[in-house]
């Protein structure tokens, strides 16, 4: 193994701009769990696949490692507080926020830019994380734009003075 400084590596990874998601699931007794993740990637259209990488350090790690279903909630511009809550808050993260509560289904949060309901397709061990790949069973997008994140900083696509449409 190379003697990389993990902090320097993390900072180098962080220059890659991403969106922000909250990944949710339920424990066996139905308790909702969720964490903020920017490791979301779309993988395939046919079949429809996506992935996210839960860390082994998560208090909810075993739930995500063993879940049959999970949801990826793509945060909208302005939902920074929700991102902070699902990254840091130690209490009930689902108290006092709006979310769609259907028995047996992973929570879908109000006001998100898009959400994807997934059946677990593959769980691949990957160092201190796992790659959790999901087959998309349902999805919805709103007219809201996604929240951006780079170098530990949230940004808005509306702020992007030099934004240029691809193509
Ligand atoms: C913008 C952002 C992106 C994050 N991305 C990930 C990620 O992709 N995977 C992960 O395991 N943790 C990620 N984290 C950290 C987790 O959200 C955080 O460690 C987790 O919510 C802690 O939950 P716990 O207290 O239940 O263990 C991210 C945090 C932030 C603020």
Give an overview in words.
By secondary structure, the protein is mainly beta. The protein has one domain (20-156): Pnp Oxidase, Chain A. It is 14% helix and 40% strand. The protein has helices at residues 6-13, 61-66, 80-88, and strands at 18-19, 21-26, 32-37, 41-44, 49-52, 69-74, 99-100, 108-109, 114-126, 129-141, 147-150, 153-156. Strands 3-2-6-9-10-5-4 form a 7-stranded antiparallel beta sheet. It has a 3-stranded antiparallel beta sheet with strand order 1-11-12, with no helix packed on it. The protein has a two-stranded antiparallel sheet with strand order 7-8. Strand 9 and strand 10 (129-141) form a beta hairpin. The longest helix has 9 residues, at 80-88. The radius of gyration is 16 Å and the shape is globular. The N and C termini lie far apart (41 Å). Bound molecules: flavin mononucleotide. Residues 20, 35-39, 53-55, 58-60, 83, 86-87, 149 line the site of flavin mononucleotide (FMN).
**Residues in helix, %:** 10-25%
Bound molecules: flavin mononucleotide
The CATH topology annotation reads as Pnp Oxidase, Chain A
- The Cα radius of gyration reads 16 Å
Structural class: mainly beta
Tertiary shape: globular
- Sheet-strand content, in percent, reads 35-45%
The H-level CATH homologous superfamily, spelled out, is: Electron Transport, Fmn-binding Protein, Chain A
- What are the secondary-structure elements, in order, as H or E? HEEEEEHEHEEEEEE
Tally the helices: 3
């Amino acid at each position: 193994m190379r003697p990389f400084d993990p902090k320097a590596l993390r900072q180098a990874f962080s220059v890659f701009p991403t969106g922000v998601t909250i990944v949710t699931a339920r424990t066996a007794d139905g308790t909702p769990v969720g964490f903020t993740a920017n490791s979301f990637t779309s993988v395939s259209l046919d079949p429809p696949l996506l992935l996210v990488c839960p860390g082994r350090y998560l208090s909810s790690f075993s739930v995500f490692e063993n879940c049959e279903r999970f949801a990826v909630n793509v945060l909208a511009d302005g939902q920074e507080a929700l991102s902070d809550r699902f990254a840091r808050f130690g209490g009930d993260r689902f108290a006092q926020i709006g979310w769609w509560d259907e028995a047996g289904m992973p929570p879908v949060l109000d006001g998100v830019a898009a959400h994807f309901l997934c059946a677990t397709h593959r769980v691949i061990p990957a160092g201190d994380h796992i790659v959790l790949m999901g087959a998309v069973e349902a999805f919805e997008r709103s007219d809201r734009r996604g929240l951006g994140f780079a170098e530990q900083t949230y940004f808005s696509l509306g702020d992007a003075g030099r934004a240029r449409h691809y193509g």
